[in-house]
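Sample entry (337 residues):
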Amino acid sequence: MLPLIGITMGDPTGIGPEVALKAAGAPPHACRVVVLGDLSAVSETASRIGSPLTPVPWQPGTAYPAEAHVLPVLPLSQLPAESRRPGQPTPAGGEASYQYVAVGIQLALAGTLQGLVTAPISKAMWHAAGRDYPGHTELLAALTHTPEVRMMLVGSQLRVILVTTHIALSQVPAALSGERILKTIALTAAHLSRFHGLLRPRLAVAGLNPHAGEAGAFGDEEARIIAPAVQQAQSRGLLVAGPFPADSLFVRAVRGEFDGVVCLYHDQGLIPLKLLSWEEGVNVTIGLPIVRTSPDHGTAFDIAGQGRADPRSMSAALTLAVEMTRIRSVNESAYLS
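Predicted structure, serialized as tokens:
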């Protein structure tokens, strides 16, 4: 049976409903899809954009619709019209989008869903609704009881993994530690092996400073923190090298020398990734016991409801989630045999 992938609708007033519909209606992704969200919002969006899909209510434990033109929706909210207006976010919509993700995590942990793809939420509306999580990643970690997770961004030519994420650039050096870098390397190697079929992934670690410190001329973090962490990872049998100057490392990775680049701060990894895969970048949370991907863009309230949202990143996220579930299943079958 094809894997069942849940797409959380995201903020009901953003582009999440639109890109979810467009991705679900694209050529087959070798999966079954269910949208976790608000049936009225999905139906209104389908009508507005002329989607060939007909949203219908669905509940876990019931038969999955056989008709190709039907899109099952798990109705987790019944928002009033004022909380569904495109481009006009509300705390009620923020709470609803939180619930979509929370239920999706529960269903993935229970095995009802084989993967979870999350459409963009509004962090401000989560906070306005009293949900004090910085975003998806932190909620996923909390509800799956996972102590360590990392953000990986995937494009057609590059994978980047972040040691630190949404902190000020001035705070990055103090946030780095050998332990955190080592853990990031180990999580990455385990994830790429389990979910991407790379038995011994080749990893590179970027330097923090220009020219990777130039032997201490531009900073000592490379010699004091980063290189020892890389050496520890090597002693554990992991295929990792560095730290390398970031200005040339990504060229080497794109040419096929490495399967992933461990980056020390947000923009170090996301600038090259978005340059190469602006329309099709995918965010993956590594370290989780479940498959979770998401499009690499936000709610885009400014174009919500206009039918202009580009679904390619959502489609790529759905395709990658399906591939990750397939490889995990193969690995688990091999282990059990």
